[in-house]
Amino acid sequence: MRKELAFLAIALILMIFLARMLAVPQQIRLNKELVQLKVRGPASSVAIAKSLAGVRVAVLIAKKDGTILEAYRVKGWSIASGYALDAGFQYRDCYEAKRVLESKGKLTTQERAYLSAADYLVKGLDND
């Protein structure tokens, strides 16, 4: 019994280590993709929102006046996913996105990520 328990503990530790090692190349690829996205416009913002269902990422590319040029989100649920243009993003500028999302009642995880990204953009543009 004791040997079986030790074997299970070692197997669990080995599986966790292996999962972490396999995720590293995917994280590097996602970071490179993110750098390419951020240079698409004069201003950009990245935000992450977490929930029990998972993590959602929002990337907003905007002009210096706050007009949003493109909105991206991570497609899929796994680390092997990439960024995809969000055709359903309906806000013209970061000020409108922040105002509407703050006044909305319960937000989805993706909407919380967009709200954070819009908030970062507003703060960054106001400092310029």
Structure description:
A hairpin with a 2-residue loop joins strand 1 and strand 2. This protein is an alpha+beta fold and 128 residues long. The protein is elongated and about 65 Å long. The protein has three helices and four strands; from the N terminus they run αββββαα. Helix 2 packs across helix 3.
Architecture blueprint of SSEs:
Blueprint: H1 2-38, E1 43-51, E2 54-62, E3 68-74, E4 83-85, H2 94-103, H3 109-127
Antiparallel strand pairs: 1-2, 2-3, 3-4
Helix pairs in contact: 2-3
Helix/strand/pairing category: alpha+beta
The dominant shape is elongated
Percentage of residues in DSSP E strands = 15-25%
Total beta strand runs: 4
Distance between the termini: 65 Å
Average pLDDT score:
88
Helix-strand topology string: HEEEEHH
**Sheet with the most strands, sense and barrel status:** 4 strands, antiparallel
Entry summary:
This protein has one domain (2-127). 52% of the residues lie in helices and 22% in strands.
Keywords:
single chain; 128 residues; alpha+beta; four-stranded antiparallel beta sheet; 3 helices; 4 strands
